[in-house]
Amino acid sequence: MSGATGGAGEDTRSAFGKLSVLMVTAFIDMLGLLMVLPLLPFYAKELGAGGFVVGMLVSAFSVAQLLSAPLWGRFSDRYGRRPAMMVGLSASAVAYLVFAYADSLWLLFLSRIVQGAGGGTVGVIQAYVADVTRPEDRAKSLGWLSAATNAGVALGPALGSWVTHWGRATPGLMAAALCVVNVAFAWRYLTEVCEHAPEGARAKPRGSREAVWRVLAHPHEPSSRLILIYAIAIGAFQGTTAILALFLAWRFGVTKDTIGFVFMYIGTLSVVIRALLLGRVVDRVGEARLSRVGTVLLGAGLVGLAVAPTVPALVLAVGLLPLGTAFTFPCVTAMLSRVVGAGERGLYMGVQQTYGGISRVAFPLLFGLAYDHLGEASPFLLSATLVLATLLMGRDLERYAPRARAATP
After folding, report:
1. How far apart are CA 356 and CA 352, in angstroms?
2. Domain assignment present for 217
3. How far is residue 294's CA from residue 289's CA, in Å, rounded to a whole number?
4. Is there a domain that residue 309 lies in?
5. CA 11 to chain centre
């Protein structure tokens, strides 16, 4: 009995060690991304862009990501997670160099496309987490990974805004340097953990297009519903994030020198919630129920942001966004890892990113048009409606992802 306990403890320590390396890698990667992302609308505006073009710039990343994600997922199922992740990190370094010296809109588009192609490995990273953790611990582990990335979200924007004082190219150059350091770190410490499918499953692997189409052809399957919930929610959230800088500049006078602190606030809350709160709450109420709670909180935050008349009201509304996303996205992704086989985990995590990418393409364009033609607050009200509508798709998911253990008194 003690040997079994020791073996389980060793497995847990090994899983946490692998997860820790991935968390450091994800933190550095997100730190570089958020150094430049909040500056993108301002740089684009200096080059003559309006709300619609800013939306197109944000969507360019997602177009490249949605095309590459299933391919990277299937590649990682066959050949391993590590090679796919190394390519993604290297692509980011190239993208930031282009961003640093972009003096035209087409170069800004190029930087977004290159980074999006590398960003198709997000599903691979999620599959890596699922490979090394027990099913009942995946939402918590994905939350820790998200906490690491959101630490980058918290620090990156403020750092990016600060280093602009040393020149327009400095944020991009510093982000590229961080990526080079990250590639070296990942090459040294990131180990391979892919659970390959059995021989019979590998003989006839499901094609990427087949898996993508199955979500629409069989929308009542649990994997399809989870992918659609994720896609709608993340598209609505990130679509409004693309417009957030313009909206806050219009209503509250936020500038490129201060927008970083808004993202820092969101990121700090995300880190605290995902690192300290998510695991306890998901153990108590379960992934399915908590994802619905998160959806309600996210929708409420979007509505509150649209109608906030004062800065304190804005602070409260914006605070609901990281709370809602922290409860929604890790739980949905963890449930998806349960309802698909290990041999197709990378593929379906990639398919989830493909549909998320489609929504991240469509929603920023839609919200950019709404901002220009229907009013500055309209994107947030529209996104709240879409987010709350996903509650209908998640109403009975408990049977596919029951609580791992009862709450302790």
Report:
1. 6
2. yes
3. 9
4. yes
5. 27
Instruction: Assess contact for 331 and 297: CB atoms under 8 A.
Output: no
Q: Which helix (H) or strand (E) holds 378?
A: helix 378-389
Domain of residue 114, residue span: 7-188+211-399
CB atoms within 10 A of CB 257: 12
Least confident range from 22-26, 109-113, 202-206, 395-399: namely 202-206
b/e map of 311-335 (b: 16 or more CB within 10 Å)?
A: eeebeebbbbbbbbbbbbbbbbbbb
Total number of domains constituting the chain: 1
Residue whose structure tokens are 């939306």: 55
Q: Are the beta carbons of 342 and 195 closer than 8 angstroms?
A: yes
Encode pLDDT of 14-50 as tens digits.
Answer: 667 778 888 888 888 888 888 888 888 888 888 887 7
**Within a domain: 354:** yes
311 CB-near residues (< 8 Å, 6+ apart): 252
Question: Cα(384)–Cα(300) distance, rounded to whole angstroms?
Answer: 7
- For 162-199, letters b (16+ CB in 10 Å) and e give ebbeeeebbbbbbbbebbeebbeebeeebeebbeebee
The CATH number linked to 116 is: 1.20.1250.20
Output the pTM of the full model: 0.73
